[in-house]
Amino acid sequence: MTSASSVPHASPACAAGEPFAVAPQRYDAILLAGFGGPEGQDDVIPFLRNVTRGRGIPDERLEEVAHHYRHFGGISPINEQNRQLKAALEAEIAARGLDLPVYWGNRNWAPYLPDAVQQAADDGCTRLLAFATSAYSSFSSCRQYREDFARALDETQLGGTVTIDKIRQFFDHPGFVDSFVDSIAAALGGFLEEGADAGAIRVLFTTHSIPTADAQRSGPRDRDYGPGGAYEAQHLAVAAAVVERVVRRDARLDGIGWELVYQSRSGPASQPWLEPDICDRIGELPAEGVTAIAISPIGFVSDHMEVLWDLDTEALEAAASAGIQAVRAATPGADRVFVAGIVDLIEERIAAVDPAERPAVTPLGPWFDVCRPGCCENVRAGFKPAAAGVAP
């Protein structure tokens, strides 16, 4: 048993630091936490300054990345995706008779998280349950959001008034996993209808690469998840679960080849990051007899620049150069199955459902309500104050 003060900014049901909520809990509102993205050409460099804050990167280097955004008019689709997701969540919450408004805030662009927290408090909502738009365990996909919550409470001086819990990492919740199945099955079935041999088809499940040292520190420290930490282990488990469901849908795909690849690395060449890179891997596939690929971005909740540029542009160009037929499958976005699954997780936390009764489609889950001490350390910056987890 950890001390009652071990989880900063937590609700009473989570303040003691137990892995799962110990009692049913009332919440006043849902906090939808996103990454954020520019919505015009004038936003691009200020947005990239926010993303890279503290690293001292000059604007001329940021402009090397900015051309991805400028190619699409300076607009990332992520904010519009989150508007649609917010509306879908509100509709599903209302349909279930839950009195829970949804406040939306981003890390890197308007609407910002501190403003969302302040608005919630002004409206009398002081017990918040957060849903961050990232399903897996790592610094950037989990702990950094928890640090964002603590920073928002500090900046608004609401730390003694507002509590923020976070729904568990949902990588293997059926609502997330099932939301990938339709588009992958359609892509693979299309290849078969066009005469492709099943043995010449490959599914490339892709996610954002992260530094290997960060990957090794992802997840709790009391378990060995393998060389890529919980981050890689979770993705591999989800990919296997998706393929199982796809084959169940279409028996012609039994034995279909698949693998996990990575994209969007941004660190120096001297720093090890998770590999293989998707474009490098595509270039190797013709020698293995592969003629068609379905690219599934299982690391992402919605379309954003890493999908539009790194997959829809660069990866599809790599496939064309290799003479491989390629289709990019959908992200969950505001898919009804995904949205229903998130609201299931909200109800699960409100009711403090026993862990043995929580749905999880891989042996790794269900994941924790309260992140464990030492989980998902940032190798470069160490541990900063964070909500929704036991302090290290």
Automatic annotation (TrEMBL):
Pfam families: Ferrochelatase. It is an enzyme of class 4 (lyase). GO terms for biological process: heme biosynthetic process. CDD domains: Ferrochelatase_C, Ferrochelatase_N. SUPFAM superfamilies: Chelatase. It catalyses: Fe-coproporphyrin III + 2 H(+) = coproporphyrin III + Fe(2+). GO terms for molecular function: ferrochelatase activity; metal ion binding. Involved in coproporphyrin-dependent heme b biosynthesis. Catalyzes the insertion of ferrous iron into coproporphyrin III to form Fe-coproporphyrin III. This is Coproporphyrin III ferrochelatase. It comes from Microbacterium natoriense.
